[in-house]
Amino acid sequence: MNFRINGEQCEVAAPPNRLLLDVLREELNLTGTKLGCDDGSCGACTVLVDGVPSQCCMMLAVSYQGKEITTVEGLAQNGQLDSLQRAFCTEGGQQCGFCTPGILMSARALLLANPNPNVQEIGQALAGNVCRCTGYTKIIAAVQRAARDYQDAQEESVAI
Q1: Per-residue pLDDT tens over the stretch 81-118
Q2: Which label site among 54, 62, 64, 141 has the fewest CB atoms less than 10 Å from its CB?
Q3: Is residue 38 pLDDT above 70, yes or no?
Q4: Which three-class secondary structure state does DSSP give residue 28?
């Protein structure tokens, strides 16, 4: 199977009934993506497929050949955390961290589509992600901070 994962071409030998989650974790050692519920209801396994949040615990890997897949490992660039990751650290949005990769990916898709979401829009975008540690207040604050940080960075690059 051939994939484009986190901007790089990957070739993997795996049976056709292998789940994308298993290929990512076991074949490619991209262990940030988590298996939470095994039925697509918790969002811990969320990755972006062509920019769309997708729960890979139920996706046959073979069906996603030729797609652009982004995992949480693909957020950081050149050894530097993405603004969204930094915002989660600053605001304490990661809690135990198990659900965080999936939430980060859903939030990333939201911010790419809507760079200035309100609280309701953030809640809707994260509705498929379950966090058992928190009431989501810090997670929403982290997404809001990341949105401001992205906007500030864009304004700086325009000014230069």
Answers
A1: 999 999 999 999 988 889 999 999 999 999 999 999 99
A2: 62
A3: yes
A4: coil
Are residues 88 and 147 in contact, defined by beta-carbon separation less than 8 angstroms? no
How much is the pLDDT for 34? 95
Query: Are the C-beta atoms of residues 64 and 24 closer than 8 Å to each other?
Result: no
The residue behind tokens 């396994």 is 45
- CATH number for the domain that contains residue 26: 3.10.20.30
Q: Using DSSP, state whether 49 is helix, strand or coil.
A: strand
Which pLDDT does position 97 carry in this prediction? 86
Closest CA to 99 of 140, 133, 124, 74: 133
- Which domain covers residue 138, as residue numbers? 83-159
91 shares its domain with 116: yes
Q: Tell me which of 52, 74, 96 is where a domain ends.
A: 74
**Greatest alpha-carbon span in the chain:** 51
> For 149, how many CA atoms within 13 A lie in the half-sphere containing its CB?
17
Query: Of all residues in the chain, what percent carry a pLDDT higher than 70?
Result: 98
